[in-house]
Amino acid sequence: MVKLTAAATTSIPRIIIFALTIVYGLAGLFARDPWKNEDAIGFGGMWTLRHGQALDWIVPHLAGRDISLGSPFPYWLGATLMDLFGPFIGMSNAARLYSAVCFFASAVAIWYATYLLGRRQEVQPMALAVGGQPGRKNYGMTLADGALLIFLACVGLAQRAHETTPMMAQLMGISIVLYGTVRGLDKPWQGGLWTGLGITIVALSSNLTLSLLIVSSTIIAVIASNAKLRFRWTLTSTVLGLIGFAIWPALWYLGNLTPEWRHIAEEGWRNMPEMRATPSIESLGFLSVNFWAYAWPVWPLAIISLAHWGRAKEAGQWRAPHLCIPLSLFTACLIYVLFRLEANEHDLIILIPSLSIIAAFSLPILKRDLISFIDWFAMFSFTIIALAIWIIWLAKVTGYPETTAANLARLLPGFQAQFDYIGFIVAIIITGIWLAIVRWRTSRAPKEIWRCLIISASGTTLMWVLLMTLWLPTINYAKTYRYVSDRLETIIANTPGCIDTSNLGSAQLASFSYFTKLPLRDDPSCNLMLTHSSLEAKAYASLNKKKIELLWEDRRASDRDERLRLYQITPASKE
């Protein structure tokens, strides 16, 4: 058990935590293009659906490429938002509302799951001899606020939570499964509905491996937990979950897909993204190197929580719901990442909801020294980062410091910085708020158990908002294919025929499909070929007895390795 006073569990003012979550969730969603790589691919699938036929809605894919992008829910939601809001705010902006929906739904689910767990008897603080211990509701709300702050403080979420990737829908689905399972402890029907909905979202936004792992881990958590869920929860979640798994295959047959397209859809559900039958050395290496920075400060707090509550006899050790349920789902997500052919940062996002809930239960037991370390580390780190962002922005706009301006010009040739009054004002405001928070934290000694998180969560928000205001034009210039697309369209404006994109990456194909109106398709019979590999073009020509002529070569200004080449293809002359 832990010993706390009611003063230590005073909740954060609602307006502060709401504003922090909304600002963080919306910053960076607007006034930019789809970015290389996964962001562009996700948007490309939504763009194809929005302009496509029934087939495109049943089997999401990129225009001109007969390869499934996987389960359809993320693309359904993105395309629907484009239809609803695209005419008013622009198609790419509307598509990124999908990320906002997933992020906010995940945040709410994490908050409520932690709140319900925090009200349970096994985690309540020790009753004080003279009274004054916190009430269940206040204690639960404080822990829930802590879980949300931990979620917002996760460094790796900043960019990845604002991109149009299927992992955002997976994040939402897993968070809802967590909430539904916890809710089912006291309200079986309601909890079953939410759990079934979460499983449905996961099944319709990921491959079969992750979907089955989430279902299995939920079953294991329920069996292992010392707080048994009732039959009504089991019945409701099972029925809805089975319906969720059946929706997409049913559409394959109701939509009269050809055997070829049915095979493409099945392959996409099984292996998109690509999986291995055994743990991947590449994924293990990526996880061991990148997880610690990505999930800071979530993982150290989660370890402290597990170490304390796992040996607490009063909490039933590992079978207590506040450990058993999130830990089981975290293990499933970790197994999934390890079995990915080659995991990346987008895959790590599904690890965070469960860890955030576990980590929240470390707050009542943190020692003063550790709280001070987390605070000062975050304060120092984010202040330095903010200062660097401001200095580099100043160099872009004014040319001083000269060395910094010269380095930027070399890295981004052709970029013309312009002073953005609105972005500047927003950046000034968010920096002022940061300084006020730092002053509040350093000028007093608050007793609330969430005090060590307000700096970290505010710091990630500060960093992300500054990047998405002062640096947004620069980052957009570096990551977009807009300018390359414009130059390509100019080169072949009057050239008839189609362009073979068989050797083009998915991000490039998605971007060129959006930014141009060129006839792009994976078709070797086209008279033009767009590729980033001259060796592939020459091999194609040699194999098919064709003659190729280089018409155009270009690249994004920030990418020194990528080279896009356009070839004219003609039959080889007979000797």
UniProtKB/TrEMBL annotation:
Organism superkingdom: Bacteria
Keyword Transmembrane carried by entry: yes
UniProt KW keywords: Membrane, Transmembrane, Transmembrane helix
Residue ranges of the TM segments: 12-31, 97-118, 138-158, 194-223, 235-254, 291-310, 322-341, 347-366, 373-395, 415-437, 449-472
UniProt protein name: Glycosyltransferase
Source organism (scientific name): Polynucleobacter aenigmaticus
